[in-house]
Amino acid sequence: MTRRWSIAGQLFALQVLVVSLLVAGGTAGAVLLARADARDAASEKVLAVAYTVANAPFVAQALRSPDPTSRLQPYAEATRLATETDFVVVMAPDRTRYTHPTQALIHKQFSGTIDAALAGGEVVEEFTGSLGESVRAVVPVRDDGNQIVGLVSVGITTETINRKLLHQAPTVATATAAALLLAAAGAWLLSRRLRRQTHGLGPAEMTRMYEYYDAVLHSVREGLVVVDRDGRVALVNDEGRRLLDLPDGGVTDRQVTELDLPPAVGELLASGRPAADEPVLAGTRVLVANQQVTRFDGRPLGTVLTLRDHTELRALTGELDSVRGLTEALQAQAHEAANRLHTVLTLVELGRSDEAVRLATAELALAQQLTDQVVGAVTEPALAALLLGKSAQASERGVELVIDEDSRLDGEPLPSRDLLTVVGNLVDNALEAVAGTDPPRKVTVLVRSSAEEVLIRVTDTGPGLPADHVADAFRRGWSTKQREGRGLGLALVGQVIERYGGRYEVASGPGAAITVWLPVLKRHSS
Questions:
Q1: Is 335 contained in some domain?
Q2: Pairing with 523, which of 108, 173, 257, 317 sits 20 to 30 Å away (CA)?
Q3: SS3 for 228-289, per residue?
Q4: Which residues lie closer than 8 Å to 381 by C-beta, 6 or more apart?
C-alpha cells in the first residue's frame, strides 16, 4: 500500500522545493550580476590604463622615431604585466601595430573599432580579436601640438574575467549551501511542529475526519460544549445551543463567564470539575450533565460537557413515582381491608353482629368522608385522583393528609399536567419533610381558584425550609436529602411558576407553608 504523505511532510517538501528554487534563482542572479560587474570593472580598468599609456610623453616621442617598435614594445609589455591586462597595443592611425604580446602580429593591422578614437574620443567595446573575445578600450595619442599621432588599445580577455569569477565560486557555493541548510532547518522545524499539531495526518484524512466529525456533532441528540484550558468556549453543537438557548453565532472563543448561560450550567463549566449524570436546570428544562477533563499525552486540554434533555422524562418519572406510591398504598390498604374483613367475619361468627356492623360502618364512613371531601372540592378528575392517592401514601407513612375545607377548584383553569406537577411535588416535599419527625405529622392542602388565578398552599408540621435556601430550592433543585437524583421537586414547581409568570411565598416556623399563585390562562378559561 502506498504511504500517503502527511500535511507536515508535504509542507516540508514544498518549502524545500520553493527555497531551493529561490536560492538557485538568487545564485544565478548573483552570478550574472557579478559577471556584469566584472565586465564593468574590466572596462573601467582598460580605459584607465589606455589613457595612462597614451598620455605618457615617451609614447608620443617614440611614435615619431624611425623604429617605434623597438622603443614601445618593452614598455608595452612591462605595462601589461604590471596592470594584469592581456594586451597593450600601440598603433599608428592607419591601424599598424607597433606593439603586441604576440610578436608575429606586430606591424599587422589592428582589428577593432577606432573611428571614435581617431575623432578625438574613446572606444570601449567587447570584440573578438586575435586573442579571442575581450573587453577593450581605444584612445588617441596626441603630440605637443595636440595632433593625433597614434592610438593605444588595452584589453582583457573574457577568459581572464571568467577565471577571476571562478575564484569567487567557493564563496558563492558556501553561501548558497549555508542558505539552503538554514532554510531546510527552518522548514524541518516548522514541519515538525505542524506534524505534532496534525498528528501526522494527511490532507485527505483530515478532510474526511472533519466531515465525519462535523456531521456527527450536528446530528447527535446530546448537547456538547467544549471548553479549552483557558476557560474559552471552543465548540457548541446544534443540540447544545438549543438546550442552552444560545445564539447561532458569537459563542466560540468567548469566556464561559461572558455567555448568558443558566446559573447551574455556568457554574459547572467554570469549575471544570468532573460530573456524572448530574441534574441541572436550564430555563424550563431539566438536563442531565456529564463533564470530564480531556487530556492528550498527559496534558489537560480542557473540559467536555454533555447534556441530555430529561424534562419530559422527569415529568413522566414523577407521574410514575406517584402511580407506584399509590399502588403500594392500595396494596397496603387492601391488606388492611382484608384484616378488617376477617375481623368483621369473626365477630359475626361469634354472634356479635352489632359490633361487626359498627366496625364496618366506621371504616366505610372514614373512607367515604375523605372521598366526599376531595371530590366535592375538586372537580378536576386528575387532581382529585392525585389527592386521593397522596392521602393513601400519607396514611401508609403515618402522616395525616388534610384537604382544607376552603378548597375549591371547578373545571380546568390550568392544564392538568401543570397542576399535577405543582400539587404533587409540593405534597411529596411536605411528606418527605414530616417523615421521621415526632407526632403529630400532618400535611394540609389548599387548592382554590378564582377568575384570575389559582392558589395552591401546602402546609406541613416538619422542620421548615431555611430562609437562605428558598431561592436555591426553587431555581437549582436544592435538597436537604443528600442522595443522588433528589432535589428537583421544588425546581420543577419553580419552572411552572416561571412559565406562567406566577409567584410563590414560603413561610416557616413551626413547619413550612408554601403558597403558589398561578394566573389562569385565557385559553384554559371557561
A1: yes
A2: 317
A3: ECCCEEEEECHHHHHHHCCCCCCCCCCEHHHCCCCHHHHHHHHHCCCEEEEEEEECCEEEEE
A4: none
Least trusted range by pLDDT, from 11-20, 156-165, 295-304: 11-20
* 290 and 393 fall within a common domain: no
pLDDT of residue 485: 39
Provide the CB-side half-sphere exposure for 353 (13 A, CA).
Answer: 1
Question: Which is higher by pLDDT, 373 or 342?
Answer: 342
pLDDT reading at 497 higher than 80: yes
Q: Which of 60-69, 118-127, 287-296, 318-327 is predicted with the least confidence, judged by mean pLDDT?
A: 318-327
Q: What is the dihedral of CA 58, 63, 67, 72, to 10 degrees?
A: 50
Place of cell 468556549: 233
Using the 3D structure, point to which of 290, 309, 328 is the last residue of a domain.
309
For residue 71, how far is the Cα from the chain centroid? 90
* Whole-number pLDDT of residue 48: 92
Distance CA 42, CA 44 (A): 5
* CATH code: domain of residue 266: 3.30.450.20
In the chain, the amino acid numbered 440 is: P
Q: Can you give the three-state secondary structure of 311-360, one letter per residue?
A: HHHHHHHHHHHHHHHHHHHHHHHHHHHHHHHHHHHHHHHCCCHHHHHHHH
Average pLDDT of the residues in 472-498? 61
Direct distance between the N- and C-terminal alpha carbons of the chain, in angstroms, rounded to an integer: 77
Share of the chain above pLDDT 70, in %: 75
Residues 116 and 88 in one domain: yes
Residue type at position 515:
T
- Out of 294-303, 356-365, 386-395, pick the least confident: 356-365
CA quadruple 476, 480, 485, 489: dihedral, nearest 10:
-60
* Number of domains comprising the chain: 3
Cβ–Cβ < 8 Å for 383, 420: yes
Cβ(154)–Cβ(53) below 8 Å: yes
Specify whether the CB–CB gap between 446 and 404 falls below 8 A.
yes
Question: What per-residue confidence (pLDDT) applies to 526?
Answer: 38
Residue 110 phi, psi dihedral angles, 5° rounding: -75, 135
Residues 141 and 253 in one domain: no
Mean of pLDDT values over 372-385:
70
Query: What whole-number distance in Å separates Cα of residue 159 and Cα of residue 437?
Result: 116
Residue 190 lies in a domain: no
Last residue of a domain, one of 309, 338, 373: 309
Q: Return the H-helix or E-strand segment holding 154.
A: strand 148-157
Average pLDDT, integer, range 443-472 = 82
Report the distance separating Cα 526 and Cα 520, nearest Å: 10
- Give the per-residue pLDDT at 391: 79
Same domain, 29 and 142: yes
What CATH number is given to the structural domain containing 442?
3.30.565.10
Which domain covers residue 234, as residue numbers? 220-309
Contact call for residues 272 and 303 (beta carbons, < 8 A): yes
